[in-house]
Protein 1
Amino acid sequence: MSENDVGLKPKVKSKPKLDRPKLYKVILVNDDFTPREFVTVVLKAVFRMSEETGYRVMLTAHKMGSAVVVVCARDIAETKAKEATDFGKEAGFPLMFRTEPEE
């Protein structure tokens, strides 16, 4: 090699480690006024659950006071919870869904 030759060294690219987005739970809160059938319809419509799965989630909330409906990214969880709660309000029921971070 002569003095004018430039030695080429490959650049090492390091990819930054990306953290997974924090997941959030959508929780169905039991109330004594919303009919069970209506809750099942909302779970089917908003969360795309089958009749049987929606019924089991509704029954769990009825017996335990609340039930986890789905775990997903924050923006999706908040959107689904608002959509389902609004669905109940439009029908005149105090149906409530809330979100909280998953541990």
Protein 2
Amino acid sequence: MDVIKRQKIIVRTSVLGIAANLVLSGFKAAVGMLAGSIAMILDAVNNLTDAMSSVITIIGTVLAGKKPDKKHPLGYGRSEYLSAMLIAAIVLYAGITSLVESIKKILEPAEVDHSYITLLVVGAAVAVKIILGLYVRKKGDETSSDSLKESGADAMFDALLSAAVFISTVIYLAWNINLEAYVSVIISVFIIKSGVGMLSSTLADILGKRMDPELISAIKKTIREDENVLGVYDLILHSYGPNLLIGSVHVEVNDSLTCREIDKMERRIAHTVFAKHGIIMTGIGIYSVNTLDEEGMRLKKDISNIVLSHEGAIQVHGYYLDKENMTVYLDIIIDFDIRDRQELFDHIKNELNEVYPQYRFDLVQDIDV
């Protein structure tokens, strides 16, 4: 999606959310104070925090849309992650505040004075929040905006909170039983859980998480389709915002290729990956494969069998035999589930040295990306 179009959709959706939440907050606060309802007042405060979240989303989107400059040559796309984290923090704060106030009302019950006007306001709020939540979440999916997705999810939780207030109001009007404080405690727990989930997800984006396996597989498939590529390894993608992924990769090629042929291949790969996947490949490393040396090819097979016979060793690549210096180069990937990965790596290296004392092994413990 075009960056400018995406920004306009996010801002327009956020403005709609601000307007809806301010109206709901005003009505709920007024009715809550007249009825003496802590649940209604907390619901109004929650709507106010939603409006604040939408404001943060707009600010984050505008910042993320700034053009790259000398200070930030890769742009400001990661600003959206920061805005999403602030929204998650607001949701978490609202949940904790609601929980504390609800417990206070259980310990010190207060009289309430609900009316059918209360019921009407809360019922309308439930309907508005459900519609708003579905709409915002849909736009979040369309624009790949974490901030909108989280705002949409929060709106759905707000609808649940308002629904609980609605039910407690019905029970009060029908049987004069006040349950709203207990209902608020249950809903507050769900809001806190939602806030923690949002915060964890956003922190994972900021720290760097494993990319979608389907995307990784598709990119590798695209690269393998090049006529000179024998294997694809070490594909790493760096996110600089929802619309900017920068990648690097290692490819295995025939050791008889010339520099000119390799240069043409690298340019083809970069162009094709960007055209098909919208990803900028800034680095394409080369693994040279012994295709003209029978001894080297045979040794590769034997060494691979030794390495992969160990539980936890999941892949070998980057093999090359330098006969002039009697050196074997090899990358070994060890599963993250292995408790002591370094110990296994050292054990494999020692075993190879014992089996092939005539060679020097230059091994790299690679990571499973």
Protein 3
Amino acid sequence: MFAIKKCAWLCSCLLVLCLFACQGEQKADKTETAGAKTEKKPLIVTTTSMIGDMLRNIVKDKAEVISLMGPGVDPHYFKASQGDLKRIREADMVFYNGIFLEGKMEAILEKLAKSKPVYAVTEELGKEQLIQMTEDGLEKQYDPHVWLDTKLWASCIEVVANRLIELDPSWKAEIGSNAAALYKTYMGLHKEVKTEINSIPEASRILVTSHDAFNYFSRSYGIDVAALQGVSTVTEFGLKDVTNLVDLIVSKNVKAVFVESSVDPKHLNAVVEGCKKRDHPVAVRGPLLSDALGEDGSSEGTYEGMIRFNAKTISEGLK
């Protein structure tokens, strides 16, 4: 009898313990769920690191921002992986450059825009603000490297800010304040670059690079540019292109050529060798940051740092 009572008592204790355990687990689950709801932030995906840096400065800690293209990545050749496509599908909002910088990926993004918020940061730039690459009479194509003109890039801030407010109207005041501060920073940076480039003797303001990414930089800061490849690194180059570039360097007494972080530096070797054969040795400087920011955590890993680094590297190489 005692054994039966003892067994019943033990069973009751075990039942009570189980109930407390289950309640504890339920409370923990609810706490975790509530915490997840509290801590979970909207996910914003950007294609390039330049756009990502802009977004982080505007949205601050209100959202998680992921850039698909990291340091040294060439957006002209970029192909989205399955992981990239998964991030895009999971994103609450997606920003890309547009003007066919992202190549074939742009068609995917435009299609996706029918079902979720996907925007080109350049969507409100007028054609008169863009640099046309094709000759009159042909289908018009425009240079997508607008971020290398800091003033023009600053004009894209308003588009981004307005779209973010659409995502969450309660952000309006803070997003507006952050966007205004960033615009002021970019305009100050624009003046810095002008001063830096103006320090180069006028006759020496000729920037020779791997591919033709610096047209907006040229227009905004008063420096001529010449490149081995076209606006897209997909463009092939041949012996005539090399010869023409060598002729320019020798005739204009150019002191240096500049490699780029996202383009194979070997591309300029033929030009350098051609100059040597003409008794005109040139220095190889850089790499310039044309299509991607520098390494995360470095001074060049931000848009401001990228632009300052490029301006300084160019001025020191051509003086």
